Amino acid sequence: MSLAKFLAWGFVALAGAASSAAADPTVAGFRAFLETVRPEAAADGVSDKTFNKATANLEPDFKLPDLELSSRPKVDNSGQAEFTKTAADYISKPYMEKMATQGRAFFAQHRAALKRIEAASGVDPYILVAIWGRETAYGVYALPHDAIRVLATLAYAGRRKNLFRAEFIAALKMLEVGVPRSDMKSSWAGAVGLTQFMPTEFFKHAADGDGDGKIDIWRSVPDALASAARQLEGKGWVRGAAWGYEVQLGPRSDCALEGPPDERPIADWVKRGFTRANGKPFTAEQATHRAYLMMPAGAYGPAFLAPENFKVIRLYNTSDLYALFVGHLADRIRGGGDFQTPWANFQQPRTQTVHDLQARLKALGYPMDKTDGKIGSNTRKQIGLYQRAAGLKVDCWPSEAVLAHANANAQR
Ligand code: CA
């Protein structure tokens, strides 16, 4: 090595150390990374033959979201529909009606298998069909990515490298046990199959739902749904319990009560004057379950009590709107209709406005764990608490007006 080359190498090494987690956005850096995975994969049962075949000509995809690269600004997942669409757009009535009609037909087609799956797992079969609908539009979505490429890239340069390193190795194991590469089509996060399984979950929960002795989460709907059922069961699904209830708030309650920290038995919500939006009473059994208030549009849409099973669906995809979509679609497939309280017609605030308001409230001492520009339940709650304390109208919704008020308050 020449001195100049050596110095350049040393400089690169130091720069690499200084920029810590950010990955070098080159194919060479990526290939060097792959070689660090090889022994770990081997220890997990991935043969050299499988490893070589899977990674020959494999190139990283630096256009994926959620990467940390040393020479490109950080891109986050703020483009995900769960965080950029309003609830009314995400759970749009015409789309839900279409999905429910299709879902009912598929439910009828697979009724026998769904009954078996329900008896074995205790999971609501309508929820399973709804997850299938949400994840791949009942198998219609053409998944755009190669899971091996996606997972290798996220393991190399993603924000959650360790998590995706384990997923990458599990995906290689799937090839090792005979899953064809052509079945490893995925979303940008590397999930595969009709109900979008991460590779580690595949090894934990994939099941044979149609009893033909094979597991095929790509072509067998009963296999995919039985696997999703085992996943939900593993995440703590409560047998026979609901995913959630649309409610009317009690007379002296507001949206600032939203969120898991204020979870309590449903009987307590009833004491505060909360009622089911459909007018039916809660049963004695339901009243013993704990639930928290969830209002995805603040005061501008329906309110829900979210019990344990809502949290379980949320573990599938960490978004209130995702869980609400799945729960509501399940109800519609079962024969239910629209929400009792409509979504008001409002605009989604700009991400920058949300971010600035989060940062301002945090500076004012409100427990705002994240300043990510996303309107999660804690953001809505803290806005509501600020509005209560300031004597403003409590709508728990970020706006330029609340931001201006908080800014003025901070300067006082
Ligand atoms: Ca099967």
Fold topology:
Elements: H1 3-18, H2 27-43, H3 48-55, H4 81-84, H5 87-90, H6 93-109, H7 111-121, H8 125-136, E1 145-146, H9 147-157, H10 161-176, E2 185-186, H11 199-205, H12 221-234, E3 245-248, E4 264-265, H13 266-271, E5 275-276, H14 284-288, E6 290-294, E7 303-307, H15 308-316, H16 320-333, H17 351-363, H18 377-390, H19 400-411
Antiparallel strand pairs: 1-2, 3-5, 3-7, 4-6, 6-7
Helix pairs in contact: 6-8, 6-16, 7-12, 8-12, 8-16, 9-10, 11-12, 15-16, 17-19
Tell me what you see in this structure.
The protein has helices at 3-18, 27-43, 48-55, 81-84, 87-90, 93-109, 111-121, 125-136, 147-157, 161-176, 199-205, 221-234, 266-271, 284-288, 308-316, 320-333, 351-363, 377-390, 400-411, and strands at 145-146, 185-186, 245-248, 264-265, 275-276, 290-294, 303-307. 51% of the residues lie in helices and 5% in strands. Mean pLDDT is 91; it is low at 1-20 and 73-78. 40% of the residues are buried. Helix 11 packs across helix 12 (221-234) and helix 15 (308-316) crosses helix 16. The strands form 2 sheets. A 5-stranded antiparallel beta sheet has the order 4-6-7-3-5. It has 412 residues and is mostly helical. The longest helix has 17 residues, at 27-43. Among the domains are: 22-74 and 144-186, no CATH class; 351-410, Muramoyl-pentapeptide Carboxypeptidase, domain 1 (Orthogonal Bundle). Calcium ion binds next to loops.
